[in-house]
Amino acid sequence: MLYLLLFTLHGHYPGLNVLRYVTFRSVLAGLGALAFSLTTGPVLIERFRQAHIGQTIRDEVPAAHQKKAGTPTMGGVLILAATAITTLLLADLRDPYVWVAVLVTLAFGAIGLADDMLKLRRGRGKGLTGPQKLIWQFACAITAGAVLFLGLHFSTNLTIPFLKNINPNLGPWVYIAFAAVVIVGAANAVNLTDGLDGLAIGPVMTVAFCYWVFAYAAGNVKFASYLAIPHVPGVSEIAIFCGALIAASLGFLWYNAYPASMMMGDVGALGLGAALGTVAILCKQELALIMAGGVFVIEAASVIIQRYYYKATHKRVFRMAPLHHHFELKGWPETVVVTRFWIVSIVCALVALSTLKLR
User: Distance between CA 163 and CA 161 in Å, rounded?
Assistant: First the structure.
């Protein structure tokens, strides 16, 4: 919006030529999103307190978490608003990929918002049921996949990390289903990880940075050719979305760091996870998300393993799932768990980025 308005004037004001560079606009979007988050955060926290919009705590979580009941929640609204506004201001809105990323993020955020509102009304974490959430999530993800692969004729070739000459073509219908699983899986994995102050938002930023690099490289024909990765014309605009997402998350972390004065809620966790899954699809680096988002994968896997192992044996693999609660019950302080998971997330992102050269 602002980009299209200002860039038309570059003939009269040569300094505006800098707006042609995606890197410059992604940094500008990041600064705008950070400023929005930092300045709006205190207002949002105060409004949530006045409206008694506070975190509800389930009975089964560690006892130390019960003291967090009442902490303002649904702070994900702050992240999603900052990301969407700055992206729409500084990205090229003629690029359909920008709209896909923004709309999928907001759609999943809306599902999370409905879940959060029901939890507040009913108490004790009783929001939408699992099947209800999955139905709405898959409906949104399948719609996005249909738009990409049937409407925009997006490539249905699958990129295999570390292998540059193996790109199986899944066909549109299989790829739509695959894309839906990636987006829904990412959304729920982030949601499961969001259990400690600052735990989920750190890996969100490292994964978003990883895909900032992927988006820029995939959208640049020279870089894509040199790195032997799929070239996706126009996807470099997604780097602006990633830049805004990183900075908006950083601004939110200011208020979410231990002891948190605001929680992101499902509106944030589902929206952010869907954003990462969607960006992975758009950049044609779908499987790299397993590496970049290693923390999210491990957290989700711990829940699945715990559930099915218990059903089969009536014994537990972990003291509690998701995995971060297991380490809490082993005696790790909350801040230690968060810091160590962040370190793992950084290493995972570096491994994912290494696939650009190790092919």
Answer: 6
How many CA within 13 A on the CB side of residue 205? 20
Distance, CA of 84 to CA of 64 (rounded, Å): 35
Question: CA-CA distance, 11 to 5, in Å (whole number)?
Answer: 12
Report how far residue 301's alpha carbon sits from residue 280's, in angstroms, rounded to the nearest whole number: 20
Instruction: Tell me the backbone φ, ψ of residue 330, rounded to 5 degrees.
Output: -80, -5
Cβ neighbours of 77 (radius 10 Å) = 22
* Sequence-separated (6 or more) residues with CB below 8 Å from residue 44: 72, 75, 77, 78, 262
Q: How confident is the model at residue 64 (pLDDT cuts 50, 70, 90)?
A: low
pTM score: 0.93
CA distance 282 to 280: 6
Q: Residue 187: phi, psi to the nearest 5?
A: -60, -45
Q: How far apart are CA 332 and CA 218, in angstroms?
A: 41
Is residue 102 within 8 A of residue 84, CB to CB? The reply is yes
For every residue of 139-208, DSSP letters joined together read HHHHHHHHIIIIIS----BPPBTTBSS---B--HHHHHHHHHHHHHHHHHHHHHHTTSTTTTHHHHHHHH
Strand pairing partners for 197?
none
What are the CB-based long-range contacts (under 8 Å, 24+) for 4-11? 4/92, 4/93, 4/94
Q: What is the DSSP string of 37-98?
A: HHHHHHHHHHHHHHTT-B----TTS-GGGGGGTT-B--THHHHHHHHHHHHHHHS-TT-HHH
pLDDT digits (tens, 9 = 90+) for 226-253: 998 999 999 999 999 999 999 999 999 9
